[in-house]
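Page 37, top half.
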Amino acid sequence: MATPPDPPLIERFPALRQFPRASLGRFPSPVTPADVLAPGVWLKREDLNAEPLGGNKVRALEFLLGDVGVGDTVVTVGAAGSTHALATVVYARRLGARVHCFRWRQEMNPAAQRVAARTSEETGASQLSRTVVGAYARAFVARLRGAHWVPAGGSSPMGVLGQVNAGLELAGQIEAGSLPRPDRVVVPLGTGGTVAGLALGFAIANLPTEIVAVRVVPRVVANARHVRALVSRTVRLIERAAGVGVPRPDARGVRVVHDFYGGAYGRATKEGDRVAADCLEQTGIVVDPTYGAKALAAAVTLAKQRGGTTLFWLSFDGRWLAR
């Protein structure tokens, strides 16, 4: 594929051009008001950032699949209904690679079942293990055989670069007057790459906005310490490549919220189902129960309680679920 134009991150740090990058997405993704959900709510439409499948994972995969070509083999892992797993399969195949996607069982909702089925259709095999350990063991064997590794959730420093760019992109949209500066940005917290990248991007852009990270996976995976570690590792990556210092985000700029989790990854909640149904009725936008509905429920609650401007980061592309 042709080399895409430089995004804001590389405009600021031209030395990052040394990292191969695949042209997968269409950026910037749009922002749109959604006052019909609650006063002051806006949406960052990451679901519209690529075809045939949008979502936040596209940004990480541009860097993680940057050096993948025809005939290569890519391996990744994730839960049965992982949107990261699906996106990796779709875009690695688009680049001409073979894909092994080793997954483990989870509690399933209808959307997760659709994601799982599509992932299996794309790979031609279920590749489902009984345990997380089993999936990682099979992936390790594939890596020993020379497969290109894409970590779970795309949450490595290289993948986080794509999310740093998303933070800088939003800062540019605010500066251009496309939306008011949000008092808070509400985003699902899974493996942490999106939250870490946004926090670092906001710090680089000097954008004083709180990130509310709504946990959607077990606490052992999704926690503030893990996010801070990802930020630190990504800062070191940029500084080594660019030879300049990078601003660090204030630890108080990210607040992890656990109240909307629902007890299990993939387990739908009544509050999430209610707000997702309202969103579909009022805007026509599909919000999935695994990630988006829980975070959107938090966004609507905060908007009603605290006022101001609340930006919900719509990370999952649910358009194909409605077809």
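Page 37, bottom half:
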Amino acid sequence: MSALDHTYAVILAGGGGTRLWPKSRKKNPKQFLKLMGKKTMVQVAANRISRFIPWDRFIVVTNKLYEKEIREQLPEVPVENIIAEPEKKDTALAMLVGSLYAKSKDPEAIIVNAASDHTLTNEKEYIRVMKAAIKTAASSEYLVTVGITPTHSSTGFGYIKIGEDLKKLGDKLSLFKVDSFTEKPNKATARAFISTRKYFWNANMYVWSAEAICKAFDKFMPKMYNLSKGLADKSSKEFHHMLPEIYKQAESISIDYAISEKAHNLVLIPGDFGWNDVGNWRVVYDLGTKDLAGNVVVSEGDKAHTLSIRAHNNLLHTNKRLIAVFDVDDLVVVDTDEILMIAPREKVQEVKELVNRLKEEGKEEYL
């Protein structure tokens, strides 16, 4: 059997995505939105991975609030493989639980961790890189991350610095030792990083064997691991039954802080396949199809109801009503059943200020 025969996909689909408010809200977070076509973000992500991992080896880790939505949107995934987190505890516990579930199915499991809300333009290259990562993880105890080759000096992503070039992985791919991590830098620092050609965007794309990640958690997060390790020996029914008590006691921490920044066996394979995490409305505009006036229209329905006159470079996200704009440029207009948001396109990354104000005023019904 090849490494692919032991490979499982763990898709994280429990996040909120507040920078895409007001479409992305607690009751309908961004992974369930149709931002790039007829399919939702989670459907696009899952279909991409199904090109090299069969559906019966998909594991989806989501919040219990979204379990029904995942069942409806991804009917190909076995129901028992949908892990409904009883409470939100960040990515470390989610990835550990996903890996332990895979291990309960196959002690030799290799796990491909993937987000439910990322886009990319070169699927063929993505699959090539992921297969190289799978082969690397299967033949060693390396924890493999795929670092995204930067296209500009973004301040919205974390960065991973590479060290020693360990070996070549076939045509044009190399395996590097990871030197260090940096959280979202300022513009000048990001420019300096890019100029060295030693820094990659951190997309939280990890591939590892169940055995290797269990050893890492045992070493660096022993309390979390001891709480959880018994899951690897349980049936699917017992596995789900044990989760509430584990989540109640476990720490909330990201995988980067818990494992990645501490592990000495972390390696990186560069990925250059047009990746983006669709983190805010400006990204939706940048990735969208533009008309002759530079406007992008997005609709979750079959028809988009818009009228624009002397309006340029706007993003119009329609709901059921007509959006009419004239003599305005560079705006984002997002219409929902309950909320209409209008903002300058260059400042939409600050939409979190609106979310925070609603929290302060106790208007939970709009979050």
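Margin note: The CA atoms of residues 299 and 318 lie 5 Å apart.
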